[in-house]
Amino acid sequence: VPPEGESPVLQAVQSLPEKYRRAIYLRYYEEYTVEEIAGVMGCRPSQVSTYLYRGKAKLRTALGGSYERACLSE
């Protein structure tokens, strides 16, 4: 059970490896473009896209059905 006030989605994001967590945070919480994230992280935009894809896949696995419900509620 997540601490009070902390959503299961946020808890799952925080459990991701650093590179995935950072890319997802910048993209979906700070609304950076892939190119902007690449500049911040010091990598190619294609690598950022890979981090986002793999990070979201890990979230889907960790959250199961909660992932789809969380995405639909946003």
From TrEMBL:
One of its GO terms (molecular function) is sigma factor activity. Gene3D superfamilies: Winged helix-like DNA-binding domain superfamily/Winged helix DNA-binding domain. Keywords: DNA-binding, Sigma factor, Transcription, Transcription regulation. This is Sigma-70 family RNA polymerase sigma factor. The keyword Transcription regulation applies. Transmembrane segments: none annotated. SUPFAM superfamilies: Sigma3 and sigma4 domains of RNA polymerase sigma factors (SSF88659). It comes from Xanthomonas citri pv. citri. CDD domains: Sigma70_r4. One of its GO terms (biological process) is DNA-templated transcription initiation.
